[in-house]
Amino acid sequence: MIDIARIALATAAALATTAAHAQSVRVELVETSPGAYQLMRDGSPYRVDGAGRNNYVDEIALAGGNSTRVWGIGSDTIGLLNEAHANGLTIAVGIWLAHGANYNDPNLRAQQLAQIEQQVRMVKDHPAVLVWGIGNETEGFADGDNPALWQHVETIAQMIKSIDPDHPTMTTIAEIGGARVQQIHQYCPSLDIVGINTYGGATSIPQRYRAAGGTKPYLITEYAQALTFESGQTGWGVPFELTSAAKAQVYHNVYDALHADTDLCLGSYAFVWGSGTDPTSTWYCTHLPDGSKLAVVDELTAAWGGPEPTNHAPLITSFSASGSARVEGGELITASIELFDEDADDLDVEYVLQNDFWSDVYNAPAATYPDAIVSTTENSVTFRVPSSAGPIRLYAYARDGRGAAATANIPFFAIEPEADYELVFEEQFTTLDTSVWQPMIGDGTDYGLPAGWGANELQTYTTSPANAYANNVLHILAREQSGQYTSARFRTIDALEMLYGRVEARIDLPNAQGLRPVFSMLPTNSPYGDNAAAGEIDVVESINQADAIFGGIRFGAPGATQSDIGSESELEDYASGYHTYAMEWTPSEMRWFVDGREYHAVAKEDWFTSAAPNDPWAPFDNPFHLVLSLAVGGDRAGPPEPSPFFIHEMIIDWIRIYEREQFPFNAEPATIPGRVEAEHYDVGGDGVSYRDRDNSNNGGALRPGDAVDIEGSSGGGNNIGWIEAGEWLEYTVDVQAAGPHEVRFRVASNESGGRFRLTSDSGDLTNPIDAPFTGGWQNWTEIPRVINLPAGEQTIRFQVESDSNGFNLDRMDFTALCPADWDLSGGIDAFDVIRFTSDFHEGGSAADVTGDGAVSEADFVAFLAAAHGACEN
Fold it and tell me: How many CB atoms lie within 10 A of CB 551?
């Protein structure tokens, strides 16, 4: 992430520094024939053979290159120019224009123009300056059709020419789609060159640029293999990466295609020279972090006319694993590798398994799993899949011991064995869908809050793209202009909600005094009232310097009275890059994670709402929607530090919601033999763990977030009421032993015609059962039936028949009908029958076959079941 505030501050510091350097070298753009152009530097033709710089700049010159590129002017720019000059290189000096800024604002444009004039005056006379690059992809990734932006670029170009006639001007665009080329030609007559960043379509730029109306000369300011979204992708949406050998061939093909355009193409800059960490550890780079060169260096050296290498980079010609790329935690996976080295060097191969957190923006290095590598041979590696679920990538680094290397990698998706959760929603922010992510605007008063969003915050939330925009990630920007702070806030109310499950997001947090970025959840149509009584879940909150993050809940009573239960996780700097923040939510507890590490948990016994003091699950038993915001100032963050250029951003890479397909109420299956309360049906939602024909909880005595109708029962506890034809409830149970069981349904009805049956995973457990008229909705009777159940965990369904009238269900009591104290393992003979019959008629304890303390028909059924071999011995 490029921090605009830091660039501005660094530039201000640099302006106070005087640098001594040599005389300026004149660079001209010459039209050699109609429609054909050439750069002339110090009177000689100059075609650009260069690379965007990261490190190892001296090796650009050794490879035959003549130029490099930087993206902005800061405190280190003079040093970079001196370094380039010492190595015989020039620099295309970038002038950073803020992304997402409101270029319709004349005050913003004037402020930028004044700053840029100071920057240009600082470095314009340095002999290493080649051209001025006014902005880099400032138009964003849409159509690039804002005339105000291009008119601003024209004004900057005119200003630069007035103070520095010795260097051409250029602006750099993201490819050539939309109205970019047309508008530059229309609004920027003082602009000499069009800079183009191109990847997957680089070889066709000469034809496509002309087709778009391009007549100005152009420089390819970035090229490499295809971008991640242009590449082939796995089923879970991550890109396949080329080997370093295949990338070298891409650079070769692109260079040849561009070099053939001698009329308009003035040269090219490969992206990026040196080592990098984005979007995978090796996607854009010519070297590894240890300085080892890759095959692309040899290819560029040949293209630029450099010397034949004395040591060629090795090649990985194949790296693959058989079987599915979706692998289970704990599974052993073997990958095979094939290598080639032109110099016949012995190659040492290092294998690294790491998290595969990628995007098209700059990343912090992902976590690695050094203990996962189990064994290696000359041509293979075996690793054990980490237990944590998610995308992982296996890297191979082959080194020759003489400063050259090769790379390849394979993506996998690690799943937890018998995973509890399934992905039900994923937002990757390719665009900003405001039907889901609904902007909230103003100071909070439109939402029933005191001005300052109820916390004396300073910002006004807007819908301006200067405060929020999406381009495969969501940018939320807090800004200050003329003492007024603006930012953005979004919610998903009535569009995206969740009740229980897991939510996680990959976020790059800002780092500045007076900021409070928050990813939270609020209830939708809570039955418990407003504010703390309804509850709030903070998935992640950070204040000021981002050296700690907070996860927790808020609850209690309406108004200002509330309780917090949260915990902090400390890290030196959560703003150093992306981190993954997650929260898991069940009826009985919530847990918080950062980068897969749990740091906080709260049990249901620790929360409450004054609106339902006797409901242990309230208020966190209703659907909650998501909220994203970046607040400025206020009671929690305090005042922001004054800054001449206050722009800070929160970047959200993706958000995912997982739901358990179904799980038991209170997280544990009900035990059979035992009692199953009707209202303790499984968690999962309508169509998953229950089916209810209306959309509200009539009765509302428990679980108000579900549509199942629950009311208080005259016998204590609760019962299911308002039962209608076609409804059903599912219960996860754990049967202790296979065999016949008696189940007694406790029902009541003020009418006749109720009908139901009990089914299981294996089919019907009963025939249809009639619920009789009992003289009232709370006059209870029990209906016994004998069913046969297998042992173990299973799901049973209470199914209301399609021709049923209404009735109430209180509970189901299950009794095992296999002998408890009778040893019948040797079979039943005549003496057993005589003994049982006598004891049964006398009501003797010996006839208590089920061991429930009473002698009844159930004991007779149990005895017969044992006689027929239905019970486990």
Answer: 26
The answer to whether residue 93 scores a pLDDT higher than 80 is yes
> How far, in Å, CA of 643 to CA of 636, rounded?
20
Q: Is domain 424-660 classified as CATH 2.60.120.200?
A: yes
Note if 751 is an active site residue: no
Which H/E stretch holds residue 800? strand 792-800
Establish whether 541 is a catalytic residue: yes
User: Which stretches of 378-452 are assigned E, i.e. beta strand?
Assistant: 380-384, 390-399, 405-415, 421-427, 438-440
Query: What is the β-pairing status of strands 193-197 and 218-223?
Result: parallel
3-state secondary structure of 189: coil
Relative orientation angle of helices 147-163 and 106-123, to the nearest 10 degrees: 30
| Count helices and strands in the chain by DSSP H and E runs | 12, 50
Residue among 59, 154, 427, 536 flagged as catalytic? 536
Backbone angles phi, psi at 808, to 5 degrees: -110, 145
**Residue found by looking up tokens 């040591």 in the block:** 311
Q: For 449-471, how does the pLDDT look when each residue is reduced to its tens digit (9 = 90+)?
A: 999 998 999 999 999 999 999 99
DSSP alpha helix (H) spans, 519-586:
none
| CATH, domain 9-311, list 3.40.50.300, 3.20.20.80, 3.30.70.3490, 3.40.30.10 | 3.20.20.80
As a whole number of angstroms, the distance between CA 671 and CA 669 comes to 6
Residues 188-219: tens digit of each pLDDT: 999 999 999 999 999 999 999 999 999 999 99
- Is the pTM of the predicted complex or chain greater than 0.85? no
**CA-CA distance, 593 to 660, in Å (whole number)?**
18
Choice among 154, 541, 727, 742 that is catalytic: 541
Q: Of 411, 226, 256, which is closest to residue 325 (Cα–Cα)?
A: 411
d(CA 475, CA 652): 7
- The percentage of residues in the chain with a pLDDT greater than 90, rounded to a whole number, is 62
- Report how far residue 133's alpha carbon sits from residue 872's, in angstroms, rounded to the nearest whole number: 83
Bridge partners, residue 69, by sequence: 52, 92
